[in-house]
Write a structure and sequence with these properties.
678 residues, alpha/beta, OB fold (Dihydrolipoamide Acetyltransferase, E2P), Rossmann fold, 4 domains, seven-stranded parallel beta sheet, six-stranded parallel beta sheet, 21 strands, 39% helix, 19% strand, ATP binding
Length: 678
């Protein structure tokens, strides 16, 4: 018979607190100092003070809003108390309270008087704790005392076997795990509170080092495991297909493009599967590198799949590949969720039979029913836009379990991954960087403009369009939202049509049918439209060389990497290009930071570094979509020095203590290692 859990136990389980180990590593968010009683004469604004005294002058006021007020005094002075939310009997309770202890943040000034709003009240005369009081991450209905009691019970039972050998602890000057855990849960009043709060205390350093160490070990083990797998066998004796695609492309490759193709070729000749990330700023020429890589594999009579996060980007790839492989025998097939039943069935049959050699599509490629004949290479564009689970799914589509054959994998990203992030998450990934732009690419001038100057901007655009230039106008939403009162793509389209009736305006958004979207994009590419009003479906991959002006509406609402991607849609021809960021006051500090960064630099790596500071690693790596958080305690940006030490420690660990390494990884990652593989 199953044991019925209490409401508190159910709430703890919802927080992931099941085993003693879960409770032990459920570490405090902050601490309250209840180890001393302060005197009113010594308090100051911003201090969290604990006072002992009596309450007088309790009253309910009925001004702008109903409030409960009182005066609290001790032997050294008085302070005001105030409750904005209170219950009926509270006034009588305070009047009869006698000597009590209160705790709360001091507000106000010495000139106008101090007050505490909604103080925490307890009995006076109780013995004071000898340690700081931890405050844990919790959920509604789960109180701190209940959580503290459960954690203390777990601390008394858990096995504190240290999985880090003495040699490594001594090398990196680490305290013991048990000592660190006990300090974090019950720090004495003499511990450095600031170091505890900003996680620079030696106890925190030990916890973060252990977590990063486990991650580094797991990544090295993942690389090791990959080298034990078999990759599809490829040779490059025949380069006819490669040469034909390059000739159709019609432009010379940059030195950077030639270098990364050589790096990829070396990987494809190895007996184990390639796992490479191709990074390059917006417009650096990643797509032709992907096409030439595909050609290397296709000339071995094996299949290649290219997966993109949006239908419009996947379609752009499809049309480019069709064009570049036009004079070859390669059949390029399109697969997306919007295909009609008959078209989809035909595509699936061609993929399964091997008749379709180059398959391009959206996440429809990983859906049930898609079976490849001999998938040898998968190329994932804008890899961080897919969840890690989706990337794993495509990899597993091409696996041959009987022969242990796993397809090669090339991930592409126009969002450069900063060095600390690459060290932390990509130890199992080889990175190629296209670090130069093709000749003729324009430097894009970025301007900031208040939304109130919209009509002035439209008058300027009329003149520019009449001279033959084309404009993207990007909006964040398709329809009006009650919570975000933003100008929408539909409304903007109608407004610009009315304001500029002499110009042809197009509209593009994600809810349009695939065929309709393709027609609009083609019309814009053919210069039949002067202005294209669009949502962020044009963020990546769209290539119209004549478009030289980008207007981003409500730029304060976009992420930094997304703004940089959108800006990269212009500057692709020989016309001087400009990106205009329309913004609405008042701006949050985050929005100011983003707009300032975009205004100051066009460097994708600098943009990525600043973006990492703000958003953390989840968006860069596609971890956000999975709901998984691989690092709970360490931060790859602020703990870069620990990442370096953990890498060094991982190598020592694996060389000298391989049996302990697996135990350490299991303690800290608990089955999340599969996510590191993708």
């Amino acid at each position: 018979m199953a044991v019925k859990r209490t409401a508190s136990e159910e709430k703890m389980q919802a927080l992931g607190l099941v085993s003693d180990s879960d409770f032990v590593f459920h570490l405090p968010l902050r601490y309250e100092d209840e180890t001393q009683i302060h005197h009113i004469a010594d308090i100051y604004p911003g201090q969290v003070a604990q006072l002992e005294g009596v309450v007088e002058n309790v009253a309910v006021s009925y001004g702008h809003r109903k409030q409960l007020t009182a005066t609290f005094k001790d032997a050294t002075g008085k302070i005001s108390l105030r409750w904005i939310h209170f219950y009926g009997s509270q006034k009588a309770q305070l009047e009869k309270a006698g000597l009590i202890r209160i705790r709360g943040e001091v507000r106000g000034s010495s000139m106008w008087g101090y007050e505490i709003i909604h103080p925490k009240i307890s009995k006076a005369g109780q013995s004071l704790p000898q340690t700081l009081t931890p405050v844990y991450p919790s959920t509604e209905g789960l109180t701190q005392p209940v959580l503290r009691k459960a954690i203390l019970a777990a601390l008394s039972r858990v096995d504190f076997k240290d999985t880090v050998p003495e040699e490594i602890k001594e090398k990196f000057h680490l305290p013991s795990l048990k000592e660190s855990i006990f300090i974090l849960h019950n720090p004495s009043q003499h511990e450095n509170t600031y170091a505890l709060l900003d996680k620079t205390h030696p106890a925190w350093q030990r916890i973060k080092f252990d977590e990063l160490l486990a991650q580094q070990i797991a990544l090295y083990l993942a690389r090791q495991a990959r080298t034990q797998l078999n990759a599809p066998k490829l040779t490059f004796d025949d380069t006819l297909l490669f040469d034909k695609v390059l000739k159709t492309f019609g432009l010379p490759l940059t030195a950077a493009q030639q270098r990364v193709i050589q790096e990829i070729k070396q990987d494809l000749l190895k007996p184990y599967p390639m796992h490479r990330l191709l990074q390059g700023d917006v417009g650096s020429g990643k797509t032709i590198v992907a096409a030439l890589t595909a050609a290397l594999v296709l000339q071995n009579h094996q299949q290649v799949a290219i997966m993109a996060p949006t239908e419009i980007l996947a379609e752009q790839h499809f049309y480019k590949m069709k064009k570049w492989f036009e004079h070859t025998s390669i059949e390029v097939v399109w697969l997306s969720g919007s295909l009609k039943v008959k078209e989809k069935r035909e595509a699936l049959e061609k993929i399964q039979s091997g008749e379709a050699q180059l398959i391009i599509g959206t996440q429809a490629l990983i859906q049930k029913g898609v079976e490849f004949a001999n998938l040898a290479l998968m190329i994932i564009d804008e890899q961080h836009r897919f969840g890690v689970g989706q990337r794993l799914s495509l990899s597993k589509k091409g696996e041959d379990s009987q022969l242990d054959i796993v397809p090669h994998q090339l991930n592409m990203s126009a969002t450069p991954i900063p060095r600390t992030l690459a060290m932390s998450y990509l130890a199992d990934v080889d990175v190629s960087i296209i670090d130069e732009l093709p000749p003729g690419r324009q430097t894009i001038l970025t301007k900031l403009m208040l939304n109130e100057r919209r009509d002035e901007l439209l008058n300027h655009l009329r003149v520019e369009c009449q001279s033959g230039k084309q404009v993207y106008w990007v909006c964040p939403l398709v329809e009006e939202s009650e919570t975000l009162q933003l100008q929408t793509a539909v409304d903007t389209y109608q407004y610009i049509q009315e304001y500029l009736p002499d110009l042809k305006i197009g509209l593009l958004h994600g809810r349009m049918a695939a065929k309709e979207k393709a027609q609009v994009m083609q019309a814009f590419a053919n210069r039949e439209l002067a202005i294209l009003v669009a949502t962020t479906v044009i963020e990546v991959g769209v290539d119209v060389p004549n478009a030289s002006i980008m207007v981003i509406e409500h730029a304060e609402r976009f992420g930094l990497a997304q703004l940089h991607q959108l800006r990269g849609r212009v500057g692709r021809g020989d016309i001087a290009s400009v990106c205009i960021l329309l913004y609405q006051n008042p701006l949050s500090n985050t929005a100011k930071y983003r707009l300032k960064a975009l205004h100051e630099t066009n460097d994708g790596f600098e943009i990525a570094r600043r973006d990492l500071e703000q958003r953390g690693p989840g968006e860069f790596l596609g971890l956000r979509q999975s709901g998984e958080q691989l690092l709970r305690f360490a931060d790859v940006h602020s703990d870069a020095n620990l990442v370096e030490k953990a890498r060094e420690g991982a190598m020592l660990f694996l060389q000298h203590y391989p049996e302990l390494a697996h135990q350490h990884v299991e303690r800290w990652l608990k089955g999340k290692t599969d996510y590191l593989r993708s």
